[in-house]
Design brief:
The protein has helices at 2-12, 39-47, 49-55, 58-86, 109-120, 135-163, 337-351, and strands at 173-175, 179-184, 187-196, 202-216, 222-230, 247-252, 273-282, 288-295, 300-302, 304-306, 310-312, 318-320, 328-330. The protein has 372 residues and is of the alpha+beta class. Strands 1, 2, 3, 6 and 9 form a five-stranded mixed beta sheet that branches. The chain is elongated, with a radius of gyration of 36 Å.
Length: 372
């Protein structure tokens, strides 16, 4: 019990003083940067312009949105002004009374900009209009109409796609702050709790994990961020989770687990990062989303289990108390997985009996040879 208390205070009181470098933050963001990327590789982002625009932050996206419309209005305003200038429709040329302009009522750059705005957004006030006098003006009108529709479709589609991305749905999926190690079903397991804060379900949910650590191969090669698969299950498996209430997922620490040779005494000295992924399909939009978080050794509590949080009321309803979502309770737990399996093997050997066919029981008469 003293070891558990020592571990608890070391994690909760002094654990924050040691900051480990992690690849994935608790909210799922990746801590990685790319260096020495060539100029040709950067141009690839402009080839996939749709994904590039979707991945931009909102301040940059709104800047592009405003610049695209204002820029196109002003550019075509200059072109309309140039048409009027070349056709001598402006007042400074003093056109005759029977002069037919290319565009009625364009008196300068301001009125040309207003006509460009009216044309592209199809306002149509009726005061300025194109006449049949100039084929250039008709061609420019058709060109601006087509380009205006393209800009509207692209920018409005990018804004709508940005709003409806399933990344925001992932914000309503939360993991427990700590992972715990305790016995479950007679086996030593690493347990994590995950909850869906919405009543709408995630369809075809699948959960799995990756253990990231630095390893050295037999050839002497050092591999940073070496990935090892970690299988997480619930009582019904790890496919198609019924995610209506918080679930406690667990990883069985057996001989094939990378946690098998770890113990309660040396857990804090280990250097690893456990990344947990939850993939699913949003029920309302049919869009796929992924939620991820990570755990470092200071966030893994050995000898604890999660407190219950689902109860049944007198009215027959099931109630979920999120106050106990991250609460842990100390329990008796073997200090290593190897000790637990050795203990089980010893019990199994004691239960087994072996018959010796050559053994003969001989009766011996007891005599008192001792003389006082």
């Amino acid at each position: 019990m003293f070891k558990y208390l020592q571990k608890y205070f070391a994690v909760h009181l002094f654990g924050h003083s040691r900051q480990r470098t992690r690849l994935v933050s608790k909210d799922g963001r990746c801590n990685i940067e790319f260096g020495n990327v060539g100029a040709q590789s950067r141009l690839i982002f402009f080839v996939d312009i749709w994904t590039t625009v979707l991945d931009l932050k909102w301040r940059y996206k709104m800047t592009i949105f405003i610049t695209a419309f204002l820029g196109s209005w002003f550019l075509f305003g200059l072109l309309w002004y140039a048409v009027a200038y070349l056709h001598k429709d402006l007042p400074e040329f003093r056109p005759s009374s029977n002069h037919t302009p290319c565009v009625d009522n364009i008196n300068g750059l301001t009125s040309a900009f207003l006509f460009s705005l009216e044309t592209q957004v199809t306002i149509g006030y009726g005061y300025r209009c194109v006449t049949e006098q100039c084929g250039t003006a008709i061609f420019l009108l058709v060109l601006q109409s087509i380009l205006g529709v393209i800009i509207n479709c692209f920018m409005c589609g990018a804004i709508l796609a940005k709003i409806s991305r399933s990344k925001k749905r992932a914000k309503t999926i939360t993991f427990s702050k700590n992972a715990v190690i305790s016995k479950r079903g007679g086996k030593l397991c690493l347990l994590i709790r995950v909850a869906n804060l919405r009543k709408s379900l995630l369809i075809s949910s699948h959960i799995y994990g990756k253990l990231l650590r630095t390893t050295v191969t037999p050839e002497g090669e050092t591999i940073i961020l070496d990935q090892i698969n970690i299988n997480f299950v619930v009582d019904a498996g790890n496919e198609n989770l019924f995610f209506i209430s918080p679930l406690t997922i667990y990883h069985i620490i057996d001989h094939n687990s990378p946690f098998f040779h770890m113990a309660a005494e040396n857990l804090l000295q280990q250097d690893f990062e456990l990344v947990v992924f939850l993939d699913g399909t949003v029920e309302s939009t049919s869009a796929t989303c992924q939620v991820r978080t990570s755990y470092v050794p200071e966030e893994v509590l050995w000898g604890y289990r999660f407190a219950p949080m689902v109860s049944k009321t007198k009215e027959g309803k099931y109630r979920v108390d999120f106050h106990n979502f991250g609460k842990t309770v100390a329990v008796d737990t073997p200090h290593c997985a190897l000790c637990l399996y050795n203990e089980k093997d010893a019990r199994n050997r004691l239960k087994k009996g072996y018959d010796n066919p050559n053994f003969v029981l001989a009766e011996v008469n007891e005599t008192d040879d001792t003389k006082m």
